[in-house]
Give the backbone structure.
Amino acid sequence: MPTAAIPPLVDVSAETPRGPVITAGPAEERAFLDALRAGVIGADAVLDGPDGPRPLRYFDWIASGRFHRAVEDELNTRVLPFMATAHTETSATGRAMTRWYEAAFRRIAGYVNAGPDDVVLPVGSGSTGAVNRLIHVMGLRLPSVLEDRYGLSRHIPAAERPVVFRSQMEHHSNDITWRETIADTVYVRFDARGRISAEDLDARLAEFRDRPLKIGTFSAASNVTGIRNDCHALARVLHRHGALAFFDYAASGPYVEIDLHPRRADGAPDAEAALDAVFLSVHKFLGGPRAPGLLIAHRRLFSNRVPAEPGGGTVLYVSPTEHEYLADTSHRETGGTPPIVGSIQAGLAFDLKHAIGPARIRRIEADYLARALAAWTAHPRLRVLGDLEAERLGVVSLIVEGVHHNLVVALLNDRFGIQVRGGCMCAGPYGHELLHIDEGVSRAIRQQLEQGHGAVKPGWVRVCFSPVTGEDEFQTLLEAVEWVAREGPAWADRYALDDATGEWRRVR
């Protein structure tokens, strides 16, 4: 397909969201995807390993996206030569950076269908910062030093405490963050397909009907099994009980549509299904590394009188004796110098996602996923975690019988150049559910960990697909996993296990 047939994939100066690239047939589609894959920085990288050089084959997309030339070229040619601080309108460079910085957030707001009362904030380096920022501005956490010294939380009547509903599927960022608040926390059960149960959520909300503040905060999809939840159905249940609906799109954000304000079939707004806040880790997007986390939330949630980070850029006026903060939430909550280039990059990463298009992404992922599951579920030494019939992202977590998960990772790396991740993926409660770990076993594992034996921590190996995954590397992955399942136990004596860390290193 001629290059001229493909419009630019990203545009730093665009004010509105873009749509997907449309191709005229199979040949153009293949050419577009080949060009997209070739644009990944490191697509032709080679790793030096104990068995010689191996092509780098990347399957750890849920952990981190990769840099892409479409984004980097746009930054290098149009943005970085004019680098300056934003929110300065007098100088040419200040005007340019401000324009690109603010345009990025307007496009992101458009991509997620945010409303005029929704705020898009760059926060930290991922969803962890976004969740913690929302907790802070809602006044739900007491400083631990003051709590330990004065016991402040005991003055909050039990009947007036907020209650937070979440699932065992949550990443630690959307679980322990809420445990460290003044709220009571409640787990919602799964349905028969391993999704968060709307029916159980309804029952749990009814139990706490008299609480003044109720919050549901759930993963849009698991970062372990990839199982997707129906965010809008859960939001409807929450709103019928007067609860807030928050969703963590860290794992699924790079791949799926995000719609804060959906419409019914007749085109009317579906207010019950709206999302009150979402959390995003843009570094997981293709083209997104370096980008900050994003909190996108309704203005009414920002009830704090003092910004989360008071300082430069948050104030309207400061005298020797008085100060007044800005009324605009987006400026008041970005104290200090904001992540200017990272935020512009976030907008470009969203551009790239939507140039590919969620529908195309889903089609590519579904094909790889179906073939991988067919191969691995049929293998007697492989166990795939999670319900196999549930709708899921292009993510598979598996256990190889008789081979420690980190040895699997080491073998895939050393023998094939395949990059995957082993462990619990910061989803300890979900690991207990998936691996059927009861309280007694859990306590025994914790005791071993406290004694420095990190190798006993349970885990699995996670494989992730992307629209830039190539057929050749996919076939290599299938062959490699089958090889590890067959030969892995015999290779264990060529590696040494570090009992403290659980890592395996080649010794012969």
